[in-house]
Amino acid sequence: MAFARALAERHCNLVLVARSAESLHAFANELRRSHPVSVIAIQVDLSSPGAGEILAEQLSNGDIPIELLVNNAGFGLRGEFRDLSLPRQLEMLRLNNQAIVELTYSLLPRMLERPQKGIINISSTAGFQPIPFASAYSASKAFLTTFSLALEQELRAEGVTVVTVCPGRLRKRAKAESGQRVRGEWAGVYQSHEEVVLEALRVVANGGGLTVPGALNKFSVFVQRLIPRRLVPRMVAKLSKA
Prior knowledge:
8 strands
């Protein structure tokens, strides 16, 4: 939602995709009322097999051009790998990885015809290290970060701006909208969705690249490089159990 609102404020026409029809169309109507933009709402469950290709075909059949693709759908599971539902973990991998690869691959040919073209991939700081008790999630974000950074170099000559965004912990909207102070917020532990969106759009305007929003997140990623890789999972496991 934060990306859609920020882009609507910049008078960009939008294509919104979600699996819940009711909330999707309600949000689309809200944006149409508050901004002079075209908003197309498409109901698709991107975690279903082949959803990325199906969505790309719908856009092509409707002659709907895409200049900026924002891959921000995803979710994470926490718990021991052996205890978590296998179907649910595979659903997460399809949404966090497969759907993004399918959608990017399927939309690229027509995007390359546009004078302006960009891709924003929302990864996570979780992708910089193995995370016990979130093993599949951190692996999915490691894949997305690697894929996105490689794609940036492949598409540079084609004039495609690719941004890889690796936020840390995001502030829950319910807490952000209440009057209660979020514990740890003073140290920059939590960020709002809006802060991450503004940073992503800033990097798009500057030509793309990797960004880790927040000084504390940047510091934690830097420190990990100084620690032997075999020790990082042990440290993270202890922190996860704490």
